Amino acid sequence: METQDFFHVADAGTVESIGPRARVLRGFAQEQAGELLASIEQIVRIAPFRHMTTPSGYAMSVALTNSGSLGWTTDRRGYRYTADDPDSGRPWPAMPAVFARLASDAARRGGFEDFEPDACLINEYAPGARLSLHQDKNEHDYGAPIVSVSLGMSAMFLFGGHARSDLAAKVPLHHGDVVVWGGEDRLRYHGVMPVKDQPHLVLGSRRINFTFRKAGR
Ligand code: MD3
Ligand code: FE
């Protein structure tokens, strides 16, 4: 195990509150990481990672794909969820059972019962990739939480307030960490600082973050 991981073994199992209804579950997905990555490999064979274009015309530095009955997409026309992969015209790959179970278990641990996501957005970060401050507002029902799983290189997550100008807290996220957000924290601005190139033993110079959402009705 490399040094970067070594320091995060000790806090596995701890729960940090970063908001009234936002919890970091340290190392919650660590034991399952291999299985999760194998599932992602299968998904990417059908629906490869791609750099989508934002409505303002920029290519995102983060590459993404989806699994589940709905997938998040962006192009010049805007942000939305679609049943089909716009590149292939085929449905997004089904959500693996291990994904659905992890999402529901983590949500319960974070204080949300009966979470049944229909969408899993998978983000891939190369060194330097970032996500500017934004809100996740394309989902039908803000009552359901969002569950996020981080694998590979560490990143500094920015957790802001309800206005873009609110000061953002910095929360380091490491391989195996899971975060659960809901209730009054659901619409807080958030982002990811440019990822530093500190290669991970298993994933190398990559960070993968996948977020489970209930996007449809
Ligand atoms: C906080 N992804 O895909 S984790 C995203 O690490 C996204 O790739 C980040 O933000 C990443 O939209 C951050 C998750 C996250 C997702 C939804 C949230 C944090 C959130 C909704 C409300 C508050
Ligand atoms: Fe987001």
Query: How do the strands line up in the largest sheet?
Result: 1-2-11-8-13-6-3
Can you give the helix content as a percent range? 10-25%
The SSE string, one letter per element, is: HEEHEEEHEEEEEEEE
Distinct bound molecules: N-(carboxycarbonyl)-S-(naphthalen-2-ylmethyl)-L-cysteine, fe (iii) ion
Question: CATH homologous superfamily, by name?
Answer: Alpha-ketoglutarate-dependent dioxygenase AlkB-like
What ranges have pLDDT less than 50 throughout 5 or more consecutive residues? none
What is the CATH topology assignment? Jelly Rolls
- Integer-rounded radius of gyration: 16 Å
Mean pLDDT: 96
Query: What is the number of E strands?
Result: 13
Please write the CATH class name: Mainly Beta
Major sheet size, sense and barrel closure: 7 strands, antiparallel
Measured between the Cα atoms of the first and last residue, the distance is 43 Å
Task: Provide a concise account of the structure shown.
The chain has helices at residues 3-9, 33-46, 97-109, and strands spanning 15-19, 22-25, 63-68, 71-75, 78-82, 119-125, 131-134, 146-152, 155-159, 169-173, 178-181, 190-192, 207-213. It has 217 residues and is an alpha+beta fold.
Describe it for me?
With 217 residues, the chain is an alpha+beta fold. It has a single domain (2-213), classed as Alpha-ketoglutarate-dependent dioxygenase AlkB-like (Jelly Rolls). It is built from 3 helices and 13 strands, in the order αββαβββαββββββββ. It has helices spanning 3-9, 33-46, 97-109; strands spanning 15-19, 22-25, 63-68, 71-75, 78-82, 119-125, 131-134, 146-152, 155-159, 169-173, 178-181, 190-192, 207-213. Strands 1-2-11-8-13-6-3 form a 7-stranded antiparallel β-sheet, with helices on one face. A 4-stranded antiparallel β-sheet has the order 7-12-9-10, with no helix packed on it. A hairpin with a 2-residue loop joins β1 (15-19) and β2. The longest helix has 14 residues, at 33-46. The radius of gyration is 16 Å and the shape is globular. The mean pLDDT is 96. Bound molecules: N-(carboxycarbonyl)-S-(naphthalen-2-ylmethyl)-L-cysteine and fe (iii) ion (FE).
